[in-house]
Amino acid sequence: MWGSLDKTGDSGASRRLTDVRTGQHECFDQLVFDAEGTAADPIGYAVRYVDVLLQDPSDVVVPIKGGAILEISLFSPR
Predict the structure, then answer these.
(1) What does the radius of gyration of the chain's CA atoms come to, in whole angstroms?
(2) Whole-angstrom distance, CA of residue 56 vs CA of residue 71
(3) What are the φ/ψ torsions at residue 46 (nearest 5 degrees)?
(4) What string of DSSP letters covers 15-30?
């Protein structure tokens, strides 16, 4: 179960992001990141709920509507 705790994953793979897709379903929203390569070469990531979303690297506050803010960061050594 995914839950609401912070999640992270490491990767040494160098993969370029090729697309970002969104979807809206009856009980959830979906965000998909497409990258070069295969699932055998995962991308590093960090996902967590935050009180305020800050723009990287300026730290300017990004206004968000809704009751929860989910911060998603993807990492690649490239």
Answers:
(1) 14
(2) 11
(3) -140, 130
(4) --EEEEEEEE-SS-EE
Over residues 14-68, the pLDDT tens digits come to 788 889 999 999 988 899 988 888 777 778 889 999 999 999 889 999 999 888 8
The b-or-e profile of 31-61 (16+ CB within 10 A means b, else e) is eeeebeeeeeeebbbeeeeeeeeeeeeeeee
Residue 40 Ramachandran class (φ > 0 left, ψ -120 to 50 alpha, else beta): alpha
- pTM of this structure: 0.75
Tokens representing 67? 């009751």
